[in-house]
Amino acid sequence: MKIFISHKQQDDIYAKEVKQTLTSCGVDAYLDLLDDTISGDGEKLTQHIKSKISECSDVIVILSEKTKASWWVPFEIGMASEKDMPIANYLVSYIMLPEYLTYWPRLKNQGDVKKYVEIRNKVSADFIKSRGLYESASIYGGTETQVFYQQLKKSL
Question: What CATH number was assigned to the domain covering residues 2-155?
Answer without folding.
Answer: 3.40.50.10140
